[in-house]
Amino acid sequence: MKRILFIIGMVCLCVNAYAQDCGGNIDRPRVNSELFEELQNRYSLSDSETYELLGRTYLEMDNVKMAEYCFQVAVQLNPSLYLSWYNLGLINMEDPVSYFKKAIKANPKFSPPYYWLGLYYCKSKDNSGSLRYFAQYLNIADKNDPQEKDRIEMAGYIMGEIKAGNIDYDLIMEKAISRKAKQIN
């Protein structure tokens, strides 16, 4: 994990330097070939892995357009890159279903896409879809992972609300936020 964070940090520095060389105009979907080759050679990555790394880096830098482009190229080159599918789902939350399902197909044990599908289906008022994906999420989520703690709690809460007949997404979220605020205080 430390190596990945270090790599992302180094890529951010390289991308920032490149952006300055281009006058900051890197919003068009193209990747600097020199930067691409440097990263690929430095970290012994395949083309698809290099695009995925660049996508994650652009996302960290809040350049969503370039991140989306890089993730799309990555999955075209290697459809088993579940993190690229997952990130495409997060970027395209208006209609994330196909991306999250492809992330699940690429790695069924990676739990976050199940959570986000449950939340998406809840918001879309598809209660059975929401319950199904939240149940799958809770079945495979690592209960000992601190990053999963809040999502596990939220998934269980939303499932309880839906089972109790409360299907208004905005009201469920409002109650969940209020409940969480009370726990913090």
Describe the protein's architecture and organization.
- The structure is a single chain.
- With 185 residues, the chain is mostly helical.
- It has two domains: 1-100, Alpha Horseshoe (Serine Threonine Protein Phosphatase 5, Tetratricopeptide repeat); 111-185, no CATH class.
- The protein has helices at residues 2-21, 33-43, 47-60, 64-77, 82-91, 97-106, 112-123, 127-140, 149-163, 169-184.
- The relative contact order is 0.07.
Number of domain units: 2
SSE pattern: HHHHHHHHHH
The count of DSSP E runs of length 2 or more, i.e. the number of strands, is: 0
Q: What is the molecular shape? A: elongated
What are the segments in which pLDDT stays under 50 over at least 5 consecutive residues? Answer: 16-28
Strand content: under 5%
Individual helix count: 10
Helix content: over 70%
| The CATH top-level class label of the largest domain | Mainly Alpha
How large, in whole angstroms, is the Cα Rg?
A: 19 Å
What is the CATH architecture assignment of the largest domain? Alpha Horseshoe
Query: Which structural class fits the helix and strand makeup?
Result: mainly alpha
Q: Looking at CATH, which topology of the largest domain would you report?
A: Serine Threonine Protein Phosphatase 5, Tetratricopeptide repeat
Report, as a whole number of angstroms, the end-to-end distance. Answer: 32 Å
Biggest sheet: strands, sense, closure?
none
Mean pLDDT across residues: 87
Keywords:
Serine Threonine Protein Phosphatase 5, Tetratricopeptide repeat, 185 residues, 10 helices, 0% strand, 2 domains, mainly alpha
